[in-house]
Design a protein that fits this description.
This protein is of the alpha+beta class. The protein has helices spanning 40-51, 67-70; strands spanning 9-10, 28-29, 54-58, 61-65. It has a two-stranded antiparallel ribbon with strand order 1-2. A two-stranded antiparallel ribbon has the order 3-4.
Length: 75
């Protein structure tokens, strides 16, 4: 018996629309391949290239952003 890792990246932007949970965006990204990607770095590369996600510095820290929030300039 083997165990698979299911890697998920969540958008870390605040969501002012009221659709989020506790004021945060609820968007998540994963990749539907059993053994790839092997780590979160590879997952971030794939979702950036294929789905428009981005990683930006906001408030002095790196955050993962869904395509909707990645298009909005940092305050």
């Amino acid at each position: 018996m083997t165990a698979d890792a299911y890697l998920v990246i969540r958008c870390e932007a605040t969501d002012d629309t009221g659709n989020g949970v506790d004021g945060d965006c609820v968007a998540e990204a994963s990749w539907p391949i059993r053994f790839e990607p092997h780590n979160h770095t590879e997952l971030r590369r794939l979702i950036k290239e294929q789905r428009g996600w981005d990683r930006q510095r906001r408030d002095g820290r790196l955050v993962d952003l869904c395509p909707e929030h990645a298009a909005v300039p940092a305050p």
